[in-house]
Design a protein that fits this description.
Layout: E1 11-15, H1 16-32, E2 36-37, H2 47-56, E3 61-63, H3 66-72, E4 79-82, H4 92-101, E5 104-109, H5 112-125, E6 129-134, H6 147-157, E7 163-169, H7 180-201, E8 206-208, H8 215-221, E9 228-229, H9 239-244, E10 255-266, E11 269-272, H10 276-279, E12 290-292, E13 299-303, E14 308-311, E15 323-328, H11 331-335, E16 340-344, E17 349-354
Parallel strand pairs: 1-16, 2-9, 3-4, 4-5, 5-6, 6-7, 7-8
Antiparallel strand pairs: 1-10, 10-11, 10-15, 11-14, 12-13, 12-15, 13-14, 16-17
Helix pairs in contact: 4-5, 6-7
This protein binds pyridoxal-5'-phosphate.
Length: 362
Amino acid sequence: MPTLSTLPTPAILIDRVKLAANIRDMQATCDTHGIELRPHMKTHKMVAVARQQLAAGARGLTCAKLGEAEAMLPSGVRAIFVAHSLVDPGQAPRIAALADRLDDLRVALTSEAHLEPLIRLAAAAGRKLSVMMAIDTGLGREGVRDQPTAMSLAARLAGNRHLVLRGLYCHEGHFYGISREELKTQVTAMLDRLDQIRRSIDPALAFWPGCSVTARLVAELGAGRVQAIRPGAYVFGDLSLSQTTGVMPAAAVAAHVLATVVDRPEPGLALIDAGSKTFSSDRTPANIFGQVNDGRDISVVRVNEEHGYLRGADVDALRIGERLQIVPAHICTVINLASQVTVTDGHDAVDAWPVEARGLTQ
Ligand SMILES: Cc1ncc(COP(=O)(O)O)c(C=O)c1O
């Protein structure tokens, strides 16, 4: 195993102790409140991490794409929710194969416009598919917009030969932008609204919200009403969770980009060997792509493909060749750019894991 001073950079480091703690803590939160955990694997895309989540007690996995679901099968997962608008009849054989490999495959119904394409797809797959209906809670992406539409869609589903409605779900991604003080009020209002929609259709329907910002609050406030949560980013953490929203302590972040300072072309600026092909183009609302994790004031403020631009009060003390561990703004898009990660015990490299679902966007 190379050490952290000999590992080729840029590299993605996963601290196995912090990863295990994040998995254990979220599972404990769910267990305490009698709620299932169905983590979204889009954050880690790795069989090794899925195995740990399942071993800790996760009831199943959430995926965005069929390719991700297929890639996770070696983890031993038996329940998968594909939380995306599936429409392509060419995917029917893959859906049938997944249904046959799992105890519980669920697909998303994401609007009225999506109903007919989904029925055609289920008919082509030749399997009666369990459906979770998306409800928009403010993100403005997929999801039924209001209660009357949810009720009429449920009525159209009733008795359908190809689809059976099992529950409602939402993704509260817009909560990344609100203050911590406001979060509790907003989550309470969201749970009340969703509960009302559910009761207007069928009180026995499951309800599965999903977002790392709201996960703990939803588990706490939704006990008895929420059946499962589907957070993704909590497993590693990033600046969005530790800084923008502050729902995760910085010390709990388990994933870093290891990068090398390669130039100091002018005072106040250093360049590293990791750019948008490592960090992606996602940044925090403060326009930062990443921040050094050791307390020094050093941020990645701009990226080109293979360069990161470092600025901050401590940049002038950097040496060429120095290695930095950087917390990225958004971990999910970072992992998707890596074919493998280096596992550490906090100090040394101890293992390497392939990112099996990297780039599987189909
Ligand atoms: C449908 C859906 N569910 C769950 C999640 C998980 O959200 P987070 O990464 O904030 O935990 C996402 C994230 O994009 C999502 O799109």
